[in-house]
Amino acid sequence: MQVNMKSVKVLAPATIANLVCGFDVLGLAINNPRDVMEVRLKDEPGICIHHKDEHGLSTEPSQNVAGVSLMAMVEEVSNAPGFEIIIDKRIKPGSGIGSSSASAAGVVVAANHLLNNRFSKEDLVRFAMAGEKLASGVKHADNIAPCINGGVTLIRCIFPLDIVRLTAPPMYVTVVHPQIEVKTSDARQILRREVQLKDAIKQWGNIAGLVAGLMHHDYGLIGRSLEDVIIEPVRSILIPGFDLVKKRSKEVGALGGGISGSGPSIFMLSKDENVAKQIEYVMTEIFFALGIEFKTYVTTVNYEGVQVIESSDASELPE
Amino acid sequence: MQVNMKSVKVLAPATIANLVCGFDVLGLAINNPRDVMEVRLKDEPGICIHHKDEHGLSTEPSQNVAGVSLMAMVEEVSNAPGFEIIIDKRIKPGSGIGSSSASAAGVVVAANHLLNNRFSKEDLVRFAMAGEKLASGVKHADNIAPCINGGVTLIRCIFPLDIVRLTAPPMYVTVVHPQIEVKTSDARQILRREVQLKDAIKQWGNIAGLVAGLMHHDYGLIGRSLEDVIIEPVRSILIPGFDLVKKRSKEVGALGGGISGSGPSIFMLSKDENVAKQIEYVMTEIFFALGIEFKTYVTTVNYEGVQVIESSDASELPE
Question: Which domains does chain B have, with CATH numbers?
Fold first, then answer.
């Protein structure tokens, strides 16, 4: 098996889980930021990890999201080769825009490419979910699925996994990442385990409206449906400035938005680039006044998911 | 105002509220049964009601769903004429397939036709909801909206009213109405006011899947999404034979189905007429064995809503 030096480079996009009213089931991929990952085949079995960034993540495969995801894939390959993973993480860990999912999804798409795409996208989601579990303690796919598939995805059911790709109209996405820490596990613990039936009804009316709005390209309906009466009222307390960002973003024309995943990032959708930039200005003003360091992104929906940008000749790869 | 003798005759379809996972927000119109209603203009103000059926419903406008709905409309018409309503109700009251909604929707569409369609469909839903409140004690629109609009409708929000028409592929609908009494108010009272968050998440995953399946014409996804983990487990106890009807209908090819509205009718969706008829046979066998009288319908999705089938010349009507 002469597979040495075969390598592939991918871009793995940031993702916004929940999309306001779709807690644990909806997710959206965006074009910026994206992690850059290179995966190389090695002669000897085993996985080794190098970082080109300063985040100080583990290089021990069993303690690294990319490592665990790839190990899950390797378990299903007989005579598996070894892999070297080089990660240049541009999506800051803990930002709430799918940093761990990008590692998990990026590595399995890249490795699958090196293995002649023998696994389906559903398989890849399954492998990446193993890595995601290391990061958040829970096997969920609402970041993984859009990261691998692009666009907006619905996880209709997690066991058995049922992923639905939804169409979506062109949209701009403005994100602010206040540099505060909100642990996913904490953000999950503060949620009530029971919710009012009347609130649940509102929520499923809104998610149904959002799906219909996305598929009809009905921006008005998308905006009206971006309402969360269950999770946001609890979690937004952890994010200073949240209510003001939302209020003022809508005043300058945002369709709507909310907490990205479990936070602390906040996202807003808009139809026009000009509005998206005004929202960035609003966010900047607010977090500057609060004295909290932050980073903003003005970007668009990513429709392709993890993208292979460089690949060595794969003709001699094992079938 | 020479408006005497102007009249219109309409067909008002039965409707299936909730559609399994869309409690209080989704509804579907079907082609059989349909009420036949005639509405005539009178010279003198006031509303009078006649029944051509044997259901013994009130002829007192304020105690009749059609009467109350029309009174709500008349309140917004200056110099309103009088109306005579002749109802031939083919949708049995208490069947759970939108009998009261058909009265409410039918009369307002007919009267609006006589008034040169001065009101929008949203207005008509609003008037008909006043009548619906008389029947069920609650202002809801999940039967009214599909009865007026046809097809599948989403009530994204009730205050303010936001109705979304969803596209839907051709489908057969098999309905069994066991002749037992389940009062809407009782069926509502046995529901828990709080639900598990994890169940609510399953439910909104399913409603999102159902909306996507309907819009993509993806019968498989529609079938997988027709699951209700919140309402059905509680309400189905009131309907003898429910579990068996569901199990055996799926065995013969039903996409899925459940309780129609608050019951006691049960409905099943299918792609083919042949399957729809096999489901009817399954239902017949089960209720025959249970010794419960019943009625079945094999029908299709109604796409037009309340339909005007006869109309006298309206040229002399007041603007």
Answer: 7-167+303-311 (3.30.230.10), 172-300 (3.30.70.890)
